[in-house]
Amino acid sequence: MASLAVVLCVDFTACSKENDDLKRTKTILVKTAGTLSTLIPAEEIEQITNLTLSGYINGDDVRFIQKMYNLTKADFTDLHIIGGGGTYETYPDYEYKYTRDNVFPCVFDSRQRDVLNEIKLPNSITGIEEGAFRYCANLTSIEIPHSVTSIGAWAFNDCTSLTSIEIPNSVTSIGEWAFWDAGLKKIHVKNSTPPKIMNNTFSTYAYVTLYVPVGSKENYTEHQIWRKFNIIEEQ
């Protein structure tokens, strides 16, 4: 009987841990935008730390994701952003906005930005909304999809742990303050034609190396702003 009790105790502990892991990690297909809240039990919302979403989301779903205060990792690779649904609140401006087709919105709440360290963006997006990752101080890396053509103002402002970024050749414009006070040391721009930027897109040029495609260094050294970086050509 004693040995049976030990086995039961071990099995119970294992099952309990497995249940906790399931509550913390969620992989969900959202077939219809606006329905995410029906796919996750209310009592599990604040327990989720690792979220993988595919399918379609709109403003209603963004507002629901903002309730996941302990979210540290998010994989949105196969997700599609759809315009519509209700409004969601942006941070830190606290404005109410609607989602737009294929534009990655300000998904994360202020508390999430304190803990978020890993995110994979949707392959389908063409733009990153202004302020999308502002104050995500623990974000160490992010891959911008080759479908993106514009990066909004303040998008990575104060991402102090972000030391390197690759900007694909699809990007033609980067908004003001987009990388202000980020921790960048290396910037890899894949477009031979310098993307449009503002004087305040970056906060510093000292000790930052800009890598550009072979044969395009002159394009950047002749640019009023890009030329401020230490420029190196790379394959």
- What amount of the residues lies in strands? 25-35%
Describe the largest sheet. 5 strands, parallel
Summed up, the helix count is 4
Pairing-aware structural class of the strands and helices? alpha/beta
pLDDT average, as an integer? 92
The helical percent reads 10-25%
Count of extended strands: 15
| Cα gyration radius (Å) | 21 Å
Tertiary shape: elongated
For the record, give the distance between the C-alpha atoms at the N and C termini, rounded to a whole number.
69 Å
Uncertain residue segments? 12-17
Order of helices and strands: HEEHEEEEEHEEEEEEEHE
What would you say this structure looks like, in words?
With 235 residues, the protein is of the alpha/beta class. The protein has helices spanning 2-24, 59-65, 110-113, 217-221; strands spanning 25-30, 50-57, 73-75, 79-81, 84-89, 96-99, 103-104, 118-120, 127-128, 150-151, 164-167, 173-174, 186-189, 209-213, 230-234. Strands 1, 2, 3, 4 and 8 form a five-stranded parallel β-sheet that branches. Strand 2 (50-57), helix 2 (59-65) and strand 3 (73-75) form a beta-alpha-beta unit. Mean pLDDT is 92; it is low at 12-17.
What's this, in brief?
The protein is α/β, with parallel strands linked by helices.
Q: What's the topology here?
A:
Elements: H1 2-24, E1 25-30, E2 50-57, H2 59-65, E3 73-75, E4 79-81, E5 84-89, E6 96-99, E7 103-104, H3 110-113, E8 118-120, E9 127-128, E10 150-151, E11 164-167, E12 173-174, E13 186-189, E14 209-213, H4 217-221, E15 230-234
Parallel strand pairs: 1-2, 2-3, 2-4, 3-8, 7-9, 9-10, 10-12, 11-13, 13-14, 14-15
Antiparallel strand pairs: 5-6
